[in-house]
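Sample intake sheet
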Amino acid sequence: MAWRVLLVVLLCMLRFRLGTPDSEGFLPPTLHNCPYKCICAANLLSCAGLGLQDVPATLPSAAEDLDLSHNALRLLRPGWLAPLSRLRALHLSHNKLDVLGRGIFSNASRLKLLDLSANALRALGRHDLHGLGALETLLLFNNRLTRLDEHAFHGLRVLGHLYLGYNELSSFSFNHLHGLGTTHLRTLDLSSNQLGLISISELAILPAFLKNGLYLHNNPLPCDCRLYHLLHRWHQRGLRAVRDFAHEYTCLAFKVPASGVRFFEHSRIFENCSAAPALGLEQPEEQLHAQVGGSLRLYCNTSAPAVSVAWVSPQHELLLAPGSRDGSITVLADGSLAISTVQQEHAGIFVCLATGPHLHHNQTLEYNVSVHFPHPEPEAFNTGFTTLLGCAVGLVLVLLYLFAPPCRGCCHCCCRCRVCCGRHWLRAPSPLQELSAQSSVLSTTSPDAPSRKASVHKHVVFLEPSRRGLNGRVQLAVAEDFDLCTLSGLPLQAGSESVSSTGSEGLMMT
């Protein structure tokens, strides 16, 4: 019996020493570096919502995604990211950070996503973001930012998305974007701030792809006519930032917070605005047309020589020499852009970015390329052939009308109804009448007869002119039995004054 009691005691001691799977102190051998109460899964490390006031002292080096959101962090120590050489994403939202400081991101050279939203940051210094050369997305919305250093984002060479909404910024310089370049930037969210002073000329010269992602809604913007026309043009062009939030673009009509006027709903405030001062704000993009399968060449013609030239495709791909990833677009040595075989995906706005000592750093040129399918060749051939055939048929009909003899059936028809034929000749004189400068009377009497009035039984074709105008022309004498079917038997008589002239000039039927 004693030995059984001893065995039970030994088993309990061994269990207490090793721990149980349900105990808090038990950790698998592979996760022995995981911080207390944090979750480690492969390359993910989550310490969210634990109420931490300090960053855990031990961080596993395999972590690529670190989540420290929803805690009570107030301060970050310089160099605290040194063990995390593989870090790609860092989530610090919903903490109590009010200042960053120099060197806290000096070991985050591979970081691509940094979330600092929903903190208490009031300012952003020049060196606060130093070391984030690979950063692509920066979330700073829902803070208390009132001031940004002139070079706060200097060194963020590939930053594409910057979110500064829901802060207290009263101004923002679009001239240099606080150290940002416009080569990669696609999204700039400045919504829900206190922006009242804004440079409209600086807005106008921004690249088209940045205007498409520039969010300025829910700010106390001034009710300026130039800004009104600029935003309306962006809305007409279908720029996403204006189109999606059109109802939230307001301005102050009388510099009173309660006098908010919607840009796209109440046009009465802007009905006296003239579009003339706003015409020179934006240079309209050049319209180009290309056919599928054809070639296209775009030149970056700047006002001064450029040191470097880059292009942005309609798919927002940055194009540098030698060209696009799929090889369909080539950037040549002179900075021009060449497309050997145009396709439908090449339609849209191409933007040229030129930099140089005598050029503004964000000087751009825009080309709006429309791609069409070519018209089929048989259609053009059929059109020309139809026109040629119509001309030939018309020519044949004219020749038949001029030289073909009259149909015998037509003659017999006219013989049966002479009255109708006579009326027909009265209404439509023959071409022979028009060719003769002198006229004759169809009469059996001589022109010298006393009565020059045609008989009522005669078929009068045209009136008899004066004797002075005959000049020896042959007269056609037609009796009552005039028959259109026997034109060869018609008697001809010449004028008495110049019989000899008929022989020289030839007989003329009138």
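Comment: The longest helix spans residues 377-403. The longest strand covers residues 363-372.
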